[in-house]
Structures are given as structure tokens and as C-alpha cells.
Design a protein that fits this description.
disordered C terminus; single chain; binds adenosine-5'-triphosphate; 324 residues; globular; 3-stranded antiparallel β-sheet; ATP binding; antibiotic resistance; 12 strands; 6-stranded mixed β-sheet; ATP-binding; alpha/beta; Rossmann fold; nucleotide-binding
Length: 324
């Protein structure tokens, strides 16, 4: 299942991935991944462990050679792109463990200098270090040694290192793993700021559905080597086979009806027109988590047997249409 992807206007295409394939030995990990991303878009790549998220990101970053397919990142093939291209990318890996004795401001100032030669009239590089430290919320720790930072502060530093060159595209691999709710919210603000004010394109991986829903303009679900869904959180939830459940009480009995086609409003109107004794009416739309579980479940079912559109998903199985 997938919302048809509307490609960005051609001058705005930052990522263009077509039929990407990756094989490790005899194991096919990516079996045909295709998607695009436009300038200033935030994409979340979701998928169960081992789905191929890190492999995909590493190929796009130019750290891993693909087996087949076409990949364009900022207009270049990452397998052959040079230093000037790399200076336009920001990479935030799962954790940064080096430079423990450096002080935060000194380390960022040192790294920032490498980006100066890649400054252009459109993009002034690097980021002013004090401003950057403020943006990531580390002003009080600017003189602290890296090894004394807490896990969350260190992750902010990881992000600062990733964006010090004012990248046009940032890759974030599980950026908020280990964050407390406050740090998480601040990080979300930072990503929104990058996308909205700096027009930065962001591709992040996460296992956190709530985070994907809050942050991403578009969610890509990767499972068993292919993209099984591509759309906004709302689009994905709306397109689920079971779109909503309507529950109500009438004559002392609780009823449930699964609305599988269109908007549930029509059903609710009809119900109220026919039955004046309806109370405790509730409409529950599928959450992103319902959608995600259903997609991954469906992808696994498709692997095991030929696809049959009439087979109910786990969500429809839970409902009791007979009562309505
Ligand atoms: N260098 C490698 N050699 C062989 N197999 C590999 C290699 N790197 C990854 N794999 C395999 O490829 C598959 C996809 O791994 P990948 O790390 O891309 O998944 P992921 O979606 O990022 O997983 P997670 O959510 O657990 O981080 C896994 O089955 C993994 O074992």
C-alpha cells in the first residue's frame, strides 16, 4: 500500500532513488527501493529491525556501494561524488564516541573550519559556532569537555557536528534514541527549524512511530527490502483497509462497526437518522501504530502467500461487524 508519490518539481529534487538493490553475499537486503525527496522535506524511514534502513542511508551517504539501481543525491551519484558534494551533506551517525577531551566549542570550531572553502553566495558555510551551540541548546556547556556531557547533551553535540557545515541534506540515524521527553521535544523543534527556516531536507530513521508522526512530512515504511508505504501519517492511516471504527450504545447494547470505505461521517449520519436512542457514540480512526502494524503484517503475509485483497487485515479481524 502506498499513496502515489507526487515527485517534487525537478529543480527541487534532493534525493531520487530508483529501484535500489543491495545484496550481501547471497542475501538480498534491498530488493527495489524507490522514492524521492524535495528541498525542505522531512522524511522518516521506518521499519522493523533488519529491514535495511541503515543500509539504505549508508548507500545514500556514499559510505556503501549499492548492488544495482539509480541513486541521485543533491544531483550526484554518491558512489562517485567528491569532497564538494560531501560538504553539502550532514551525517549524524548512531553515536559519536571520539574527542572526549575536547571542549564543545573548540571541537565545533575546529570542524567548522573545514567547511569554509565550500561557502557559496547562496549557502554561507560554516554555521557561526556560537549561534549553532545556542540552536542545539548547549550554550551552558560550550566550555565543557565532551566526556563530561550527559547522553542527551552528547546527542545534541552529534547533531551540531552533523550540521556545522550548513548542509542542504541531513541524514539522522535514530537521532533521539535515549532522549528524555524534554530533550526529544527540543530536538523536534530543531529539525522543524532546519526544514522550515534553513530549507534543509532531512532523512531520519526511527523506531518511534510517534516521533515519525510529529516530525515527518512523509513516512516511508521499509519492510523485507522494499517500501511498503509512502505518504503522510494521515494518508497512511486513511488508506488502511479498516479506516475507522464507529462504536455506540443503543437499547443497552454496545455496537461496533468498521468503516472500510470512505469517510465514517456518512455512516454516522445514517445511524443517527435511523436510531434516535444512540448514546456514547465514538469514532476511532486508525492510529499510525495500527497502520504500521497492519502494513508490516501485510508485507509478511504477502511474502508467505500470493496476495489476496479479500483477506482481512488484523484490524478488521478485531472488529465485530455482525453486531451493528
Ligand atoms: N556488512 C554486512 N554484511 C552482511 N549483512 C549485513 C551487513 N550489514 C547489514 N547486513 C544485514 O542486512 C540486513 C539489513 O540491515 P540494516 O542494518 O540495514 O537494517 P536496519 O533496518 O537498519 O535495522 P535496525 O533497525 O536493527 O538498525 C540485516 O539482515 C543485516 O544483518
Amino acid at each position: 500500500m502506498s499513496a502515489p508519490e507526487v515527485p517534487p518539481p525537478s529543480g527541487d529534487v534532493v534525493l531520487d532513488v530508483r529501484d535500489l538493490r543491495m545484496r550481501y553475499g547471497t542475501k538480498d537486503v534491498l530488493t527495489g527501493v524507490s522514492f524521492t525527496a524535495g528541498r525542505g522535506e522531512v522524511l522518516a524511514l521506518l521499519g522493523p529491525n533488519g529491514a535495511g534502513k541503515t543500509t539504505t542511508i549508508e548507500i545514500l551517504e556514499g559510505f556503501r556501494m549499492r548492488s544495482a539501481g539509480e541513486v541521485s543525491v543533491l544531483g550526484e551519484d554518491p558512489a562517485h561524488a567528491g569532497e564538494a558534494w560531501r560538504a553539502r551533506l550532514g551525517v549524524v551517525l548512531q553515536s559519536w564516541r571520539d574527542h572526549g577531551r575536547w571542549r564543545v566549542r573548540d571541537l565545533l570550531g575546529y570542524l567548522a573550519r573545514f567547511y569554509g572553502p565550500y561557502s557559496t553566495a547562496e549557502v554561507r558555510r560554516p554555521w557561526d559556532v556560537d549561534e549553532l551551540i545556542k540552536v542545539v541548546g548547549l550554550t551552558d556547556h560550550a566550555r565543557a569537555k565532551v566526556q563530561t556531557l550527559s547522553g542527551g547533551q552528547r546527542r545534541r553535540l552529534d547533531v551540531a557536528i552533523g550540521i556545522v557545515g550548513r548542509p542542504e541534506l541531513v541524514f539522522l540515524d535514530e537521532p533521539t534514541a535515549g532522549f528524555d521527553p524534554h530533550a526529544r521535544r527540543e530536538f523536534h523543534d530543531l529539525v522543524h527549524r532546519l526544514a522550515d527556516f534553513e530549507n534543509t531536507t532531512v532523512l531520519l530513521t526511527t523506531h518511534d512511530l510517534d516521533e515519525a508522526e510529529k516530525l515527518a512530512d512523509r513516512i516511508l515504511v521499509l519492510d523485507e527490502g522494499t517500501i511498503v508505504a509512502n505518504g503522510s501519517a494521515e494518508q497512511l492511516a486513511r488508506e488502511l483497509t479498516t479506516q475507522a471504527e464507529v462504536r455506540w450504545t443503543a437499547e443497552g447494547r454496545r455496537h461496533v462497526h468498521a468503516v472500510t470505505e470512505g469517510d465514517p461521517t456518512g455512516f454516522v449520519r445514517e445511524l443517527l437518522a435511523h436510531d434516535s436512542g444512540v448514546t456514547d457514540l465514538e469514532v476511532k480512526r486508525a492510529s499510525l501504530e495500527d497502520t504500521y502494524m497492519s502494513l508490516v503484517h501485510r508485507a509478511e503475509t504477502d511474502q508467505a502467500e500470493p496476495r489476496d485483497e479479500a483477506v482481512p487485515t488484523s484490524t478488521t479481524e478485531q472488529t465485530d461487524e455482525g453486531q451493528s
